[in-house]
Each structure stands twice: as structure tokens, then as C-alpha cells.
What does this fold into?
Amino acid sequence: MEERKVSESESVISRVMMPPDANLAGNVFGGSILKMIDEISGIVATRHCRRNVVTASIEHMDFLYPVHIGNLVTLKARMNFVGRTSMEVGVKVYAENLENGDLNFTGNAIITLVSLDESGRPVEVPRLIVETEEDKALFQEGHERWLNRNERQKKLSTKNANGNVK
It folds into this structure.
């Protein structure tokens, strides 16, 4: 199977936050930002494997700074880790006040996506070529999260329909 560099799938998107994205006080809904994160994660994963992908989990989402109507939200996403059929994408979120140029790091997220074949079944993805020290560190951290996710999924699969552990 072919391999791909981290840089081959990186992506950046930006969008101005509008009134439908926010509450009455002008604070942007976390869900609006999560939707953008899901979209860019899908772009990065699809670029990596060149197949249909689905979101399998959101490892975490940290909202560190508020986003307001009129802010330009920019997301920068990259591949952190690749398993056999799954891919971990890291996303950084920034909000820019277009009137004064203030730029704030507003949050980050880690999303796991799975590549699917034409029948909707998981399919192997290309290996990830890590080139920089940052790539290597993020890959190792992603591998540790992958191990933890697999363990968590095993525990969940042992529950029956009533939610009791077998």
C-alpha cells in the first residue's frame, strides 16, 4: 500500500461567523465550530486515503476563547496518526477580529475517522510518512490515544443491550 506525507493532506478553511451561528448574546455556538471541525477533518482524511470517510470519534474538544459574530474563524488541520483503517486528525481553531486584527487561538480538537470501501466497510488506509520532529511526536501521541480508544471500545462491546457488563 502506498504511503503519504503529513503535508499532502493538511488543510485550512476560514469562515465569517454570522447571526445564525450564535446565541442572542452574539457568542458562537460550539456546535457551529464542531461542524466546521468535522468538515475539515473529513477533508484531511479523504485527501490522505482518497476514499469515503466517516467520523468515528471526537477524542476531545477544548474551547479556550470565545468566538463572536463577525469573527473570521480559521481552522488548520493535519493528520496526526494512521492505524490500519482509522486516521486521527488534529484541528486548531483561531478567531480573528476583522476590525482590529486581533487573532486568538480559540481551541483544538482531535477527531478519528475511518475509511470505507464501496460497500461501507472499513478499508485499509495508506501509511503516514512522518518527516519532522513535530510529526513524530504527534504520531506517538496519536498511537497512545489509538491504544486507549481500542481498549475503551473493547469495554463498551462487552455490555449487553441492558447496559450490564457481561
In short: Residues 3-157 form a domain with the Thiol Ester Dehydrase; Chain A fold (CATH 3.10.129.10).
